[in-house]
Amino acid sequence: MTQRSLIFAGTPDFAVPAMTAVADWCEASQFDLHVMTQPDRRAGRKRQLLASPVKQAAIARGLLVSQPERLSGRAVIEELKKWQPQLMVVIAYGLLLPAAVLKIPNYGCVNAHLSLLPRWRGAAPAQRAIAEGDQFSGVSLMKMDVGMDSGPIYLQRPLRIGAQETAGELYQRLGELSASMLAENLDALLTGALQARPQLEQYATYAPKLSKQEATIDWQQPAAVIARQVRAYIPWPVAQTQSGGAGEQTTLRLWEACALSGSVKQSPGQVITQGSQGIEVATGAGRLLIKKLQRPGGQVLPAAEFINAHSLEKTIFS
After folding, report:
1. What digits encode the pLDDT tens for the residues 73-96?
2. Can you tell me the mean pLDDT for 268-279?
3. Fewer CB near the terminus (10 Å): N or C of the chain?
4. DSSP assignment of the chain, as one string?
5. How far apart are CA 286 and CA 290, in angstroms?
6. What does the alpha-carbon distance between residue 292 and residue 255 come to, in Å, rounded to a whole number?
7. pLDDT tens digits for 7-53?
8. At residue 66, does pLDDT exceed 80?
9. CATH 3.60.20.10, applies to 5-203
10. Residue pLDDT, tens place only, 102-146
11. Domain with CATH 3.40.50.170 in the chain
């Protein structure tokens, strides 16, 4: 088998641009490309078995795709060794790479991590950056080690976070940025021209995976904090709140909201006004203007359309 080969490991839609960039480079440089992605998963109301976006894109290009459940088994390790890869490129793969895998490629494993490391190591860097009010995110090309996003950094590029940008939108832009960075630097990574510098551990912060429990809005928080959470939790798990009295509560999901300044007399969670501009709700500090929301099983609607069918006058969210 040829010794001119690369491995790409990734799973979600925002990893597809990077895979495409690596595939284009391999095609132009006469390298074989092996793609690794998560196994097919059941999703949606019908629980259909779906291939990952990376797998779909790879198959469309006629690339070899491997989908191991884990990377610690001897058979998987031996298979990777047979490929004799020069480099392994990883972005949002979803499986930990053990030391035995990290040692296989001649030039190691490079992770395109979607934050400005050492800030936001972990599974949800874009969500945490938005929720915390960061002005910038970015992409770090790093040499992988056995730690969690702790390896030395080859290259970083910042990206300003939009004032109303959701996590889903930010991930798409970060994915495109990672693709351009890889396309420009694969040659340097394969010749050793890029030198990696250690991360500054004292500045490390962590971005754990989101949970459904985090999606419940705490109306005691300031409006600015809640508005950031609404953006951070799109497309999943989506910020939610309860409306209605005991025994008849309805879960409402918030898809767009912004913070309004000014003092409020109402209790946190109480609807102040509802109209064509949206639904104003009192918070622990300031007011939250809800612009788009959704009932269970219903469509996402602009607030003005929503209240025509479901008035929220005098509602207190909990």
Report:
1. 899 999 999 999 999 999 999 999
2. 96
3. N
4. --S-EEEEEE-SGGGHHHHHHHHHHHHHHT-EEEEE-PPPEEETTTTEEE--HHHHHHHHTT-EEE--S-S-SHHHHHHHHHH--SEEEEES--S---HHHHTSSTT-EEEEESSSTTTTBSS-HHHHHHHTT-SEEEEEEEE--SSSS-SPEEEEEEEEPPTT--HHHHHHHHHHHHHHHHHHHHHHHHHT-SPPB---GGG--B-PPP-GGGGB--TTSBHHHHHHHHHHTTTTT--EEEESSTT--EEEEEEEEEEE-S---SPTTBEEEEETTEEEEE-SBSEEEEEEEE-TTS--EEHHHHHHHS--TT-B--
5. 13
6. 5
7. 999 999 999 999 999 999 999 999 999 999 999 998 877 788 999 99
8. yes
9. no
10. 999 999 999 999 999 999 999 999 999 999 999 999 999 999 999
11. 5-203
Calculate mean pLDDT across residues 253-281.
96
Q: How many other CB atoms are found less than 10 A from the CB of residue 108?
A: 17
Q: Alpha carbon of 292 to those of 17, 104, 239, 307: distances in Å?
A: 30, 49, 12, 11
Residues of the chain with CATH 3.10.25.10: 212-309
Tell me the torsion sign for CA atoms 300, 305, 310, 311: positive
* pLDDT reported for residue 45: 75
Mean pLDDT of 189-204: 96
pTM for this prediction: 0.95
Q: Which fold has domain 212-309?
A: Methionyl-tRNA Fmet Formyltransferase; Chain A, domain 2 (3.10.25)
pLDDT at residue 245 in the model: 61
